Amino acid sequence: MPPAYVKPYVKRQKNDSTDAEAICEAVTRPNMRFVPTKTVEQQSCLMLHRARHLFIRQQTAVINSIRAYLAEFGIVASVGRRGVEQLLEVVADTADHRLPEVARVLLLSAVSCAR
């Protein structure tokens, strides 16, 4: 049952016993609607979507960090997939001396985390 349906039945300060009393009062109302319980398949599908969203956010954060770190050395590229690929080519190229070796090692470890 959504908390918004129970809120009108809370009589005084919020604590466990008054919450339980309000829930009992709300349940006894004939026009109260309930949310059906999700099946295991529905719950696992929701978990898949949340995990995918989390991974995309983490990947975006790593890519933005790589862009920022390289920008500190004056290495910038266009926005988008092609720009990121150009930056990763700079990181992978050991002959490119614009990037110190310590920074290159750290960025390579960040890249391996993003993939």
In a nutshell, what does this entry contain?
With 115 residues, the protein is an all-alpha fold. The protein has 5 helices and no strands.
Written account of the structure:
This protein is an all-alpha fold and 115 residues long. The chain folds into two domains: 1-35, no CATH class; 47-115, no CATH class. Helices cover 65% and strands 0% of the residues. The protein has five helices and no strands. It has helices spanning 3-6, 16-27, 40-72, 81-92, 101-114. Helix 3 runs antiparallel to helix 5 (101-114). The two termini are 41 Å apart.
* Strand residue percentage: under 5%
Structural class: mainly alpha
- List the uncertain runs: none
Work out the number of β strands: 0
For this entry, give a set of tags:
mainly alpha, 5 helices
Topology:
Layout: H1 3-6, H2 16-27, H3 40-72, H4 81-92, H5 101-114
Helix pairs in contact: 3-5
